[in-house]
């Protein structure tokens, strides 16, 4: 990545500000670590560890003596005549032993409990893990014995191991005390160096965070100066620069929107001028053509029936084409002048039902499903123009289903608007076609002027509303019209 001169200066200043406190921190840290090492490896610590080890060992010794005392008491009570079984039960409960039981022949017990050692008349105590067990011989004649066991506190056993391990580590650390000082010094130097490197990296990062939005904003102004009003500054910032970037993006978006509206208005004005001229050029010869056909019909000699019949057929065809051209000229003329709507209270549900009745859906094998909202608010609009909008949209939907299908028409109240949706299951259209659908003179039909949807859009926008279309090729289309309850006048 390219770094500007300003970024280099800002980074150097940041590193310079960071260097002094870093050196001080390294020196103080080294002193603290050396002092801590002296405290850690001092004689007081060694004495404390030794005392701790002696203490836990004494606790274990106390537990062992307790087991020996229990064994001696059992022998004394048995010799005094107490039943062995009852004595063992009582001792188990009194001294909270894990077990207290009689063992058979001493040689068997010795092999199991103490290897090859024979059981003696003196108490013998051993440790297995955290279980302290003791054994004593009862009677030389019987050769039996008694074994008792108790599980020691895990913290005691762990304490012995931990203190022993800590003492061993401490003694090894004592031999490394001199080397530790050098290690601390080197570590301090390394930490200081690392902090400087990190500081430089952070400096570069911070300066980039500061300068990147400004650079992006400069680039944005250059793009706008070239006429690219679609450019957006994508740099992230949450301070005053972020607010400036957001304002810049809003400004370019407003400029782009206003430019598109202006271009659209200019295009519509140009198309209307073309439509006005076309309407004039079409209308001029229609009347003379029609009058000429009437005159020829009056002077026709009908004695020749075959010729007269041919003349009548041709004359009717010419009249039909003249009427078609007259309708086309009227459509051009209407698009050219786009009259202001004459606003009166309109019931859109009633207009929808009327339009659907006029299209004879059953004959076309089309199922109609209506979802019209009850108590739909009336809108202020031109009923004839709104009827033409819905007629055109329903007609297009029907023509998109030549083999039949389903037509769904719905209405609903949406805040200050009334929404009418028309959905068909016809052939649909591509995304490119949907984007051009409202352009004047654009059509996908073999016959037509391409002004129908342009007029529809002009009427809807003239009422202060909006129209949008969504379609998937081969799956149908949906057209949504929104008309405000109180429509503003056309600007």
Explain what this protein looks like in three dimensions.
This protein is of the alpha+beta class. It folds into three domains: 5-40 and 176-213, no CATH class; 47-171, 2-Layer Sandwich (Beta-Lactamase), CATH 3.30.450; 338-484, Heat Shock Protein 90 (2-Layer Sandwich). 61% of the residues lie in helices and 14% in strands. The protein is built from twelve helices and eleven strands. The chain has helices at residues 5-40, 43-79, 84-94, 106-114, 154-175, 177-225, 240-298, 305-337, 348-358, 383-399, 431-436, 452-462, and strands at 99-103, 124-128, 131-137, 145-151, 344-346, 366-372, 379-381, 405-414, 417-424, 466-472, 476-484. Strands 6-8-9-11-10 form a five-stranded mixed sheet. 19% of the residues are buried. The model is unreliable at 487-491 (pLDDT under 50).
Strand order of the largest sheet: 6-8-9-11-10
Q: Report the average pLDDT across residues.
A: 76
Q: Judging from the principal axes of the Cα atoms, what is the shape?
A: elongated
Largest sheet: 5 strands, mixed
- Poorly predicted runs are 487-491
Strand content: 5-15%
How many extended strands?
11
Radius of gyration: 52 Å
Write the H/E string, N to C: HHHEHEEEHHHHEHEEHEEHHEE
Distance between the termini: 51 Å
What is the CATH architecture assignment of the largest domain? Answer: 2-Layer Sandwich
For CATH, the homologous superfamily of the largest domain is named as Histidine kinase-like ATPase, C-terminal domain
Structural class: alpha+beta
Q: Provide the CATH top-level class of the largest domain.
A: Alpha Beta
CATH third-tier fold name of the largest domain? Heat Shock Protein 90
Q: How many domains, as an integer?
A: 3
Helix proportion of residues, in percent?
55-70%
Number of helices: 12
